[in-house]
Amino acid sequence: MVWKPRVTVAAIIERDQRFLLVEEESAYGLQINQPAGHLEENEDLIAAVIREVREETAWQFEPEHLVAIQLWRRDPSTLTFLRVCFSGTCHSHDPHQALDAGVVATHWLTRDEVAAQQARLRSPLVLVGIDEYLSGNRYPLSLLQNYLDHE
To answer: Which fold has domain 12-74+81-139?
Structure first.
């Protein structure tokens, strides 16, 4: 069997020193996460993060930078994730759009409010990503190169 990490994308969206997060059902109960999800077949990373933010929050997301590329696993017996973390802005909220299955609410939280919820974070990367963003980590989207269907 070939080992492969799961590729995911996540969005750090700040407005007025608050971050857009989702509260979602998981195997561990209700947890807090950035808008995030899995890369789908035939999709590039930028399209994936735009789609995930729209599905989970009903906001249109405009990626502006890469914040981090993170390799994570909870312990050796669990799956490994390669997480590509973006930052950007959102606009055009659709309050009538149903949110993705499992998402029960969205919240705008300060960094300290997120830290206070540490036991409920989907992974430690939620707070790590916010701290990386706040420390100024910004990399150009041009680092991502898409060669799908390219000879």
So the answer is: Nucleoside Triphosphate Pyrophosphohydrolase (3.90.79)
